[in-house]
Every structure is written in structure tokens, then in C-alpha cells.
Specification:
about 200 residues, alpha+beta, Arc Repressor Mutant, subunit A, 2 domains, 7 strands, elongated
């Protein structure tokens, strides 16, 4: 693996912001096929992304690459926390609770089998985990004394959770919607204290 070539591509994009494969081919003095291979690896690892297209001559426009949003970062955590703060200040506790239920229902999406009435628990668990993992929770389940324990090994909202703790309540509503049973959080992810999972179980 020619790691130095990829580092040179990343360095070029840091300094020039964007580049086409042809521009990188000239800069690196490599074949176009080699450059496209390294770009594909960087893109697969979420280090670069296509940010546009540019005409470099006759034919189709060339793809323009830049550093990915994952590398550059964004302000979505600050924006999300600020919007929640503004929104929650204007609502009563009951209104906040109702709004979290509605948000959870929207995140749950439509699962056709669940809309048809009674669904066996194994099917509900399978559909729940599938939806949670679409939402990046890295979820799994274990058998528990009171019913299935749902374990979330990743929090998609970790960047804002300390400022918007109501999102944990929303997660409980999301699980209730998907599993069709009341759920409560028994473990909250606290990396600094050694807890790397959120755990929910039936009430």
C-alpha cells in the first residue's frame, strides 16, 4: 500500500482545496489509472469526496475532488444544539414530550409489517435493529429478565448529547414506536466513566 501517495493527494487538496484526477496525475507524475485507484481508496475511507464537475476539454466534465466533510468538519453539532435550545425554551414540558414522540415516530419510518397489526416479537426485534442500524446506532439485543434489552453501541448524537439530554428520551420513544412496548433507559453512554453503550429494556 503506497500510503505516501495518498498523503500527498490529501496535502495537495489541503493546499489547493480541489483537484481533478488529471491535475493530480500531473502533480504526482503517475498514470491516471493509479491516481484514480488512490482516489477511490480515499473516497471509500471518507477522506475525499466529489465536490463538483469541471470541463477540461471536449467530452464529459471531469469530477472535482476535495477533502470530505468528515475531514473538514462542520458546525452541525453547534447548530443542532442551538436550535434545540431555542425550540425547547418556547414549550412546556408536556409540549416537549409530545414533540419528542412525534420526532421519534418520524425517525422510526414506516415498517409495513408493523402497520398490519400484531407482529411476533422476533420480527419486531429484527425490524427494529434494521431501522436503528440504518440510523447509525450500531444496535443489537440480548435476552433480559423483563424482555429484550436493546444495546446501542454508538450514539449518532454524541456531539450534542450533553447539551440536549432530551435526545435520550427521544431514543426511548423511538424504541417504543418500533417495538410496540414501553421502554426505559437503564444505562447511558458515558465514555469518560467507562460506559460505552446505551441500554434500554422494557418497563
Amino acid at each position: 500500500m503506497r500510503l505516501t501517495t495518498r498523503l500527498r493527494i490529501l496535502d495537495y487538496l489541503r493546499r489547493h482545496h480541489t483537484a481533478t484526477a488529471s491535475e493530480l496525475t500531473r502533480f504526482l507524475a503517475m498514470t491516471g489509472a493509479n491516481v484514480r485507484y488512490h482516489l477511490a481508496v480515499l473516497e471509500a475511507n471518507q477522506l475525499v469526496e466529489v465536490v463538483g464537475r469541471r470541463h477540461e476539454g471536449p467530452g464529459r466534465p471531469a469530477q472535482v475532488y476535495g477533502l470530505s466533510r468528515h475531514v473538514l468538519g462542520d458546525g452541525l453539532d453547534e447548530l443542532t444544539a442551538a436550535m434545540f435550545d431555542e425550540w425547547m425554551q418556547k414549550q412546556t414540558a408536556a409540549e416537549q414530550e409530545a414533540a419528542l414522540v412525534r420526532i421519534a415516530a418520524r425517525l422510526a419510518g414506516k415498517i409495513p409489517a408493523m402497520e398490519q397489526g400484531l407482529v411476533p416479537l422476533p420480527r419486531r426485534l429484527a425490524d427494529t435493529l434494521a431501522r436503528l442500524n440504518e440510523l447509525h446506532y450500531q444496535a443489537r439485543w440480548e435476552a433480559g429478565a423483563t424482555g429484550p434489552k436493546i444495546i446501542l453501541e454508538h450514539c449518532p448524537y454524541a456531539a450534542v448529547l450533553n447539551r440536549v439530554p432530551a435526545l435520550c428520551r427521544m431514543d426511548a420513544f423511538l424504541l417504543e414506536t418500533l417495538l410496540q412496548m414501553p421502554m426505559r433507559q437503564v444505562v447511558r453512554m458515558e465514555p469518560e466513566e467507562g460506559d460505552w453503550q446505551c441500554v434500554f429494556q422494557p418497563v
